[in-house]
Design brief:
It is a single chain. The protein has 242 residues and is α/β, with parallel strands linked by helices. The chain has 8 helices and 7 strands; from the N terminus they run βαβαβαβαβαβαααβ. The longest helix is centred in the middle third of the chain and has 29 residues.
């Protein structure tokens, strides 16, 4: 038996990187998965590779109407959403003086507003079921001050705060809300931070992480193994913030 047998999961940013790793692991553990992204070609290929247990939806997480359409589609097909994994995220470098309004709004829109809209979209059906898990992907940039990424850091701190507020509001309905704070993970975003070969030695464990190592933590939070865990940060960073 898989740890997610009978569960249905909606994953944003699921076309590649951490989202694709999470989708593959979840399907392997018995879940059905709706992969949502704006990268249609990659998203459809990821879903196709996972077989009948996965399907793809185009979703701009900044758009409330698009969220409603995606959630309605998942509910029509599977009857429920047991877990929402708010994984979609973007990064743009910029310090206090160089960050433009466009860069700020782009990051806040996807990283912060997208998480809010996602939680709003699935909360009614989860409350009705009297169960559910929402997993919000933040970052170690949401735990500490980081130079040259003020917009990204602001959005990830916001995810941390929203997670705790939503956790308290939804706890009476047995709906859990937690955040994951990845460190230096080998995805397409990592080279924007710095050369991977230089970043690994900065980590106490001596290396950057694979996307499936974040997926393992997401699996715990999506499963019933974490049934009494809510409003909590889970740090996956090899000791970087210790």
């Amino acid at each position: 038996m898989g740890r997610l047998d009978g569960k249905h999961v909606l994953i944003t940013g699921g076309a590649r990187g951490m989202g694709a790793a999470e989708a593959a692991l979840f399907v392997g553990e018995g879940a059905t998965v709706c992969i949502a992204d704006v990268l249609d070609e990659e998203g459809e290929a990821t879903a196709e590779a996972l077989g009948d247990a996965a399907n793809y939806h185009h979703l701009d997480v900044r758009n409330a109407a698009a969220w409603a359409t995606t959630v309605e589609g998942c509910l029509a097909r599977y009857g429920k959403i047991d877990c929402l994994l708010n994984n979609a995220g973007v990064y743009r470098e910029g310090n206090l003086e160089t960050t433009t309004a466009e860069d700020w709004e782009f990051q806040i829109g996807i990283n912060q507003t997208g998480v809010l809209l996602g939680m709003q979209a699935v909360a009614p059906s989860m409350r009705e079921m009297q169960r559910g898990s929402i997993v919000n992907i933040s970052s170690i940039a949401g735990l500490r001050g980081t130079p040259n990424c003020i917009g990204y850091g602001a959005s990830k701190w916001a995810v941390r705060g929203m997670t705790k507020s939503a956790a308290k509001e939804l706890a009476p309905f047995n709906v859990r809300v937690n955040s994951i704070h990845p460190g230096l993970i080998e995805t397409d975003m990592l080279p924007l931070v710095g050369p991977p070969e230089m970043l690994g030695p900065m980590v106490p464990m001596g290396r950057t992480a694979h996307a499936d190592e974040v997926a393992d933590t997401a699996l715990f939070l999506a499963s019933d193994d974490s049934k009494y865990t809510t409003g909590t940060e889970f740090v996956v960073d090899g000791g970087f913030t210790a």
